[in-house]
Design a protein that fits this description.
CATH superfamily of the largest domain: 2-enoyl-CoA Hydratase, Chain A, domain 1
Structural class: alpha/beta
Number of domains: 2
CATH architecture of the largest domain: Alpha-Beta Complex
Strand content: 15-25%
Radius of gyration: 19 Å
Strand order of the largest sheet: 1-2-3-5-7-10
Largest sheet: 6 strands, mixed
Oligomer: single chain
Helix content: 40-55%
CATH topology of the largest domain: 2-enoyl-CoA Hydratase, Chain A, domain 1
Bound molecules: coenzyme A
CATH class of the largest domain: Alpha Beta
Shape: globular
Number of strands: 10
């Protein structure tokens, strides 16, 4: 892989988008590599939590690579958007938590990538924005949908129609960021939390993600009950309960 770095420490995998000279803008190669890496990590039982971040000090991801937008027409434009949507939806559907560690600019496709992750931890230097209208387009990798769900229709409309960038504190206040850390601590603190998550029984974590995703549906409560029942069939459930009652540390198998 040339535009993505992958590092495994314990049960935590870190994906780094690595085109710092272009502020980690997503070109076709980066998107293809990202997709492959995400699919592999999802299947890998040795991985319990994934971090996505950007190389360098300046940017998480400054958007899709604008150079690749030239020449798009109605059909190829829609295909281009669907392609990006698919990759980001693949991230959102992962069975292990994906934490965006937003270390700088998260603009356009970068903001959309962060929103496709399950959680967003951000540096105090992070800046979010959906500047696409300034290029005569709209967010096309899920941004109009995920931003609206995350921060509400009015705020999403304001961000998308003005293209205004917001800083980390505002992102935290409106629910686009979940935690803010000093820039120098972002990765360290994110890894600590990711380690905690990765130490929990993997099946329970995957099922929790599935139940949380059902919050957007009408029968979320029923899904929660069914999924709770599924948890009760696992070895790690038995181990968790037994270890508690025997006053010892559980030895999870992450089945
Ligand atoms: N696509 C392609 N290249 C990009 C890019 C993008 N989305 N964002 C940044 N780059 C490139 C720049 O062209 C520049 O390349 P160069 O050195 O070969 O000229 C390099 O990354 C550094 O960016 P630069 O603009 O010089 O940095 P800056 O600090 O002056 O500005 C930004 C930073 C993020 C404000 C500015 O780069 C920007 O507005 N980027 C585009 C953001 C955007 O519209 N994203 C949505 C795309 S749909």
């Amino acid at each position: 892989m040339s535009t993505i770095l992958l590092e495994l420490a314990g049960r935590v995998a870190t994906i780094t988008i690595n085109r710092p000279e272009k502020l980690n803008a997503l070109n076709a190669e980066t998107k293809a590599e990202l997709r492959r890496v995400v699919e592999n990590l999802d299947e890998d039982p040795a991985v319990g939590c994934v971090i996505v971040t950007g190389a360098g000090e300046k940017a998480f991801v400054a958007g899709t690579d604008i150079g690749e937008l030239t020449g798009l027409d109605r059909v190829s434009g829609a295909q281009f958007a669907r392609g990006g949507q698919e990759i980001f939806s693949r991230i959102e559907a992962m069975r292990k938590p994906v934490i965006a560690a937003v270390n700088g600019y998260a603009l356009g496709g970068g903001c959309e990538l962060a929103m496709a992750c399950h959680v967003r931890f951000v540096s105090d230097r992070a800046r979010f924005g959906q500047p696409e209208v300034s290029l005569g387009i709209i967010p096309g990798y899920g941004g109009t949908q995920r931003l609206t769900r995350l921060i509400g229709r009015g705020r999403a409309t304001e961000m998308i129609t003005t293209g205004r960038q917001i800083d980390a504190d505002e992102a935290l206040r409106i629910g686009l960021a979940d935690r803010v850390f000093p820039a120098a601590e972002l990765l360290l603190r994110t890894r600590e939390i990711a380690d905690t998550v990765a130490g929990k029984p993997g099946r329970a974590i995957a099922l929790a993600l599935r139940a949380i995703a059902a919050a957007d549906t009408e029968n979320g409560m029923e899904r929660e009950a069914e999924i709770f029942g599924e948890c009760c069939t696992t070895l790690d459930f038995r181990e968790g309960i037994t270890a508690f009652l025997e006053k010892r540390k559980p030895a999870f198998r992450h089945e």
